[in-house]
Amino acid sequence: MAVNYATVTWDQLHRDARILAEALVPRMPFKGVVAVTRGGMIPAAIIARELNCRLVETISVVTYDEEERGKPTIIKAPDAAGDGEGFLVVDDLVDSGVTARVVRERLPKAYFACLYAKPAGKALTNHFVVEVPQDTWVLFPWDTAPLFVPPLASRKMEGAD
Q1: What predicted TM-score, i.e. pTM, was given to this entire model?
Q2: Splitting the chain (161 residues) into consecutive groups of 10 residues, what average pLDDT does each group show?
């Protein structure tokens, strides 16, 4: 169970995706990019743009059935990527490594990169930008919504009589 939370903003995500893309330039050219859905879709789009890759494929792995952890299953295969040779796989986060293992089995020749990696899964990625402690739950911009928070002075005035 996560004890700490880290919030990633849209700006931070975009900056980290560009940092990752810059680190990948020496590995070019890539035949295409495979986004691990759903979290890898936005970073993959940014990286595909920066690397001028037009072929963007997806792989979708489900590891939960309702609220129970089940056997990881590919529900959408990246057919255009074959065995992954010449392809870049992009995800937002490698956590326990469950999804990454399934993706690596399906695309053994691909280069696997992600924005963020936790200790339990980082060995499954070829490149990542930021290491995150295992007990930290990462809140991505698509998981949160900005809310209005009244100024502290306003809250004091409401309770004053």
Answers
A1: 0.87
A2: 85 98 97 97 98 97 71 93 98 95 97 97 96 95 88 70 54
Q: H or E element: which one contains 44?
A: helix 41-50
78 in Cβ contact with 57 (< 8 Å): yes
Q: Provide φ and ψ at 51, rounded to 5°.
A: -95, 0
Residue 46 pLDDT: 98
Instruction: Give the structural domain span for 100.
Output: 4-159
In the numeric block, the tokens 């074959």 are attached to: 82
Give pLDDT, residue 154.
81
Q: Residue 89, annotated ligand binder?
A: no
- What is the number of other CB atoms lying within 10 angstroms of the CB of residue 83? 11
Tell whether 79 is in a known binding site.
no
The number of folded domains in the chain is 1
Residues 6 or more apart in contact with residue 8 via CB below 8 angstroms: 16, 116, 138, 139, 140, 141
Answer yes or no: is 83 a known binding residue.
no
Residues acting as catalytic residues: 91-92, 95
CATH number of the domain bearing residue 80: 3.40.50.2020
